[in-house]
Amino acid sequence: MTYRDLLQNVDTQKALSMLRLSSEPNGAYIKFDCVEIGCEGKASIKAYGDKKNLWYCQKCHAAGHIISLAVKVKGLTWKEANEFLEKAISENVNKITEELNINYELFYNDFLKEKGISEDTCKLLEIGVPKGKTMLAGSVAFAVRDDTGMKVAYYGIKMKDQKPIFHKSFNPELYLYNFCNLHEQSITYFTTDLLHCVRMIQANQQAICNFGLPYLSQPQFNLIKNVDHIIFCVDEPIARTLAVQLAFSHKLFFRFEKQ
How far apart are CA 127 and CA 80, in angstroms? Predict the structure, then answer.
């Protein structure tokens, strides 16, 4: 496994635990005591998304990634650190096991209309703007279901800047939006754009989305490994990353189209 693959697939929380570093989740990041001698600051390491498993200490300005961190903390060689961290590859770590007991009252608005998503589609997929004071206020909420169809979370997209927002218990690397409705023998469209995914579903196309991540995690790879025909509708930089991943670990038929 290359170091880039390792950075993407290692479960950050599990890796820090294996390194015996006490940690505390903080949104997309996890904080831990800086390992630099004489520094009493808190370092932050990104737990998912772009630049995953890269860390930085604001106090002493030390920085690195999870592999170099393992080398420093455990006194390992580069090869030994890679082998050590492969034990922290995220499979079902932190996967939600109980159905979400929250049901937002969602309403349709002009933002969704402008994005080409109909009110009927929103009702069918449980999409809309939550009423009342919630963490997703000012956002469009999307009900997320796991591969069995169980509702596990709401994923939000802020209407102001279209940035994602969701509860820290939800790890997007472990799920694919709409995967529970997928038929493995039918053509499947893959996109990193959730709104685009919903529009394709609305057009009666079988589509899935990885919640905007610039790669496919190992758990996501495992979900699609039995799909017969995948069309990746992604931007060019992400297409190059996915092409390399697929060439090494996916033997099925796929092609790329511009998103």
Answer: 46
Name the token pair of 5.
């693959």
- What pLDDT does 256 receive? 66
In eight-state DSSP terms, residue 177 is: B
Whole-model pTM?
0.73
- What is the C-alpha separation between 94 and 32, in angstroms, rounded? 19
Write down all domains in the chain, each with its CATH number in brackets: 3-88 (3.90.580.10), 106-258 (no CATH)
Give the whole-angstrom CA distance, residue 220 versus residue 51: 18
Distance, first Cα to last Cα, the chain: 29
pLDDT per residue as tens digits for the range 23-78: 887 767 899 999 999 999 999 999 887 788 999 999 999 999 999 999 999 999 99
How far, in Å, CA of 236 to CA of 239, rounded?
5
Strand partners, 106: 130
